[in-house]
Design goal:
seven-stranded mixed β-sheet, five-stranded antiparallel β-sheet, alpha/beta, 8 helices, about 25% helix
């Protein structure tokens, strides 16, 4: 057994939701979190995180997005962290900051690097029909997602996984990995350092932008591609189609294979009730299960959506 004097001093850097999973898990395991760097004040998550940290008696280290600021750096130095964990952070950190902890600054990325470097691996692994994804634990360096690998944990992708279900499962895996890593370090374990494979052929995971064609359904695609596109955007974006200038969001659908769809204009509403719509695509039909409207991420009753948009059989979605 290791004693109290072996407890490592942990700096946490991150943003919701992953940072919340990790902070809660580390606190439950009675680990020594010496401070938390989260988003700057102009970020929408700032007030929530400030309140969360106060309620949990955790030191909130303020920043103005200048991570080379000497006051910030000195604050971190004074805390004497042994190790830092980065748990979802949208900002590139400089060497002056990430080299402060003697045991390194460690990032947890939700893919099996070097594949799916980037901001949204969840969407892209579903769209590419991968059978597995995972968590890569790696040292931070001067660019995103390129540092030496410490450990990778593989996680299977299920047939009906959504962006949200993958997100939750990988967050839970990461939180456990944080605790396991601290336990290992507190027993004087030495973490490995394996350089990433240098290749230009890795699969990318660029950011998805709401309100753009990134989230718009192409009804000329086959129904399998449409169905996985809808799952890959649920629940953080919603796959969008437009009718009369308003947005219709698709959260969950069924596929109906039928070659007769080829004879109809793609996106045509072929049948409609108070419970569902059936819309044709390249090689069959999409039957709606859960819908939403406009720029919210709320689910709505199909009858309310139809009434709001005044959709009728024969109408065409764009």
């Amino acid at each position: 057994m290791f004693g109290f004097n072996n407890k490592k001093r942990i700096l946490i850097i991150g943003m919701p939701d992953l940072v919340l999973y990790c902070l809660i898990a580390l606190k439950k395991a009675n680990k020594n979190i010496v401070g938390v760097i989260t988003s700057p004040p102009n970020n929408p998550t700032y007030e929530y995180m400030k309140d969360f940290l106060k309620k949990n008696n955790l030191l909130h280290i303020e920043n103005n997005k200048n991570f080379k600021d000497e006051n910030l750096l000195q604050t971190v130095r004074d805390l004497k962290p042994d190790v830092a964990f980065v748990c979802s952070f949208n900002y590139l950190l400089p060497k002056e900051l990430y080299e402060i902890p003697p045991l390194g600054t460690i990032n947890f990325h939700p893919s099996l690097l070097p594949d799916y470097r980037g901001a949204n691996p969840y969407f892209h692994v579903i769209m590419n029909e991968e059978k597995e994804t995972g968590i890569t634990m790696h040292y931070l360096d001067e660019t995103f997602d390129t540092g030496d690998i410490i450990k990778q944990i593989k996680v299977p992708i299920e047939e009906r996984d959504t962006m949200g279900s993958l997100f939750n499962r990988l967050n839970q895996t990461t939180a456990k990995l944080c605790v396991d890593t601290v336990n290992f370090l507190e027993q004087d374990g030495i973490l490995p350092r394996i350089p990433q494979i240098q290749t230009d052929n890795y699969k990318e995971a660029p950011k998805i932008y709401a309100g753009t064609d990134d989230v718009k359904i192409n009804w000329n695609n086959n129904i399998k591609d449409i169905e996985k596109f809808i799952r890959a955007l649920n629940p953080f974006f919603g796959a969008v189609s437009k009718f009369n200038g308003k947005e219709l969001k698709f959260w969950d659908v069924e596929m109906i294979y039928n070659q007769e769809a080829e004879n109809l204009p793609s996106g045509t509403v072929c049948d409609i009730t108070n419970e569902y719509m059936i819309i044709n695509a390249k090689d069959g039909f999409i039957k709606t299960k859960i819908l939403g409207i406009d720029d919210t991420n709320y689910f709505s009753d199909t009858k309310d959506v139809i009434a709001y948009l005044n959709i009728k059989k024969g109408d065409k979605l764009n």
